[in-house]
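Notes from the 1:1 (GR / supervisor)

We went over the backlog. Supervisor wanted to see one worked example end to end before approving the batch request, so GR pasted a single chain during the call. The sequence is below; no edits were made to it. Supervisor asked that the structure be written out right there so they could see what the output format looks like.
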Amino acid sequence: MRAPIGDFDHATPAPDSLDELTRPVADAVRHWRGSVPADRIVYVDTEPEWADTAVFLEHYGKDLLDRSANCVVVAGRRGGETVLAACVVLSATRVDVNGAVRRRLGARKASFAPMDTATGETGMEYGGITPIGLPGGWPVLVDSAVVDLPYVLVGSGRRRGKLLVPGKAFAELPNAVVLEGLGI
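Structure output shown during the call:
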């Protein structure tokens, strides 16, 4: 199979690559629902030491910058309660944590979740967190620019490998909210 974007040596439909994914991501692919069939989600094998965006683009092509997204875990606090959420924005932007995220979560304060919280709560590796397979109650805030793309490169749950996902599939994830201006 040829990858729909990028130039990768190995690309396979995600349902045929479940062993390459973390358990929560594999389970989400296995039980996929929505207008985009699961076999349109593509797993591409990549080197784990090249997982971070800048290094990844050096090795796999700078043209992927406008077609790749980061998924970051944020913590919103109000009173004594903390709400964890995921934010998906294009890699060329950054998450508007103190504006759009804080307002959407109804939080007094919002910040990036600590690495051990993000990995422990998601069951995914740092540098590979993806919005597919997140804990059930989490809000998934998605920048509208991500949804508008035919395909978007995101993490696979591990530092090794990435997923290529049709943009509109992000709007159909459980608890997904599409926001204008989430990525600034």
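Supervisor's comment: The CA atoms of residues 25 and 167 lie 17 Å apart.
Batch request approved.
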